[in-house]
Design brief:
This protein is α/β, with parallel strands linked by helices and 420 residues long. The chain has two domains: 33-177, Leucine Dehydrogenase, chain A, domain 1 (Rossmann fold), CATH 3.40.50; 186-342, Rossmann fold (3-Layer(aba) Sandwich). It has 15 helices and twelve strands. The two termini are 41 Å apart. The radius of gyration is 21 Å and the shape is globular.
Length: 420
Amino acid sequence: MDSILESALAQFHHGADHVQLPDRYRELLTSFKTTFQTQFPVELDDHSVHIFEGFRVIHNSARGPTKGGLRYADHVTLDEVRALAMLMTWKCAVVNIPFGGAKGGVRVDPAALTQSELQNLTRRFTSELLPIIGPDQDIPAPDMGTNPQVMAWIMDTYSAAKGYTIPAVVTGKPVAIGGSEGRFEATGRGLLYVLEEHLSATGGLPGRTLAVQGFGNVGGVAAKLMQQAGARVTFISDKDTALHHPDGIDAAAAWVHVQGGGSLKSWLEQHPEAAEPVAPEDVLTADVDVLVPAAVQSVLTAENAPAVRARLILEGANGPTTTEADAIFAERGITVIPDILANAGGVTVSYFEWVQARQYMQWTEDQVNAELRRLMIAAYRNVVARCPIGSRGECTQREAALWLAIERVVEAINLRGIFP
């Protein structure tokens, strides 16, 4: 099975072949502007000192300051961060916002740290990143294992080093200190908008059955919003528990429980009639209209792709589909709405937050959601224009999205030129 970096590079070269990209651009777009790797000490509550390893990778800044999440996970690797930074470049270009791509991570299990230890780690890692992050340089955001509180600590540490408050150095902050209304639900809401647009010509979302793998800020929000829009969510799962109910699960109620600090396991214990537990792998092969992989990368592989029964896959996670699985889905006529389009709602509202912070303004949630819907639908229509629905065997939406992204980044490179 390909690693996520191998998959990202293979997807790029496939797209580059289609647009007949010259070698000079291939080399440029498969290199990384900045690769930052550090090992740093953190004092724990028992006064012991532990060394953690952190990464920040800037892929390409031709279209503007770079943007990308910061994840805390015990499996983070440099190759993973590189792949995700590259995907962020394409994602920002697909939705046509003026950012390049970046990504970061610390190899740590955040659940194993106390709140004070997590704060110590965040502030020390931020101090390591001071030379490369900034509102006009590189702007981190929440990702797996991080949240608005972590962003608040980053903002405060960076601001203290500079001597004045700089809210635009990160996005995904609490609203009380310059965050944006609607940012928390943005990725899940963007998934909803893209899915509604995709289905608009064939009866819309009401009555469709969904399976959602992952029940965090992306999957949990998406499941709730899609249920509220009329879909029947028959499968949901988190990292420990997978649930099924043929008549639909109350995803909104489950999300309220998880938001309160619970899990799907504890929710089921309190509401045993709400669903029945199933094997985690059953979610990916569920007999549903739409599959939403919204957990981690590389979950759809050559091994399970032949068993997928959904005719539409909406990628909520980054890189959930390997290149082998992509080929199988194309052969089987299964439509994949790719991550660089489908889950771009988060970075889009991060852009709105950055704009608000630079102007010291606050948009209403209605304004945010309206602008999000406008940009997500425009991006979807631009992609579909390059690969019309029903073009089986001719192209896929992932290919079309990459063609569009590569052309936009190359246009920026050409306009700026290579210096000196």
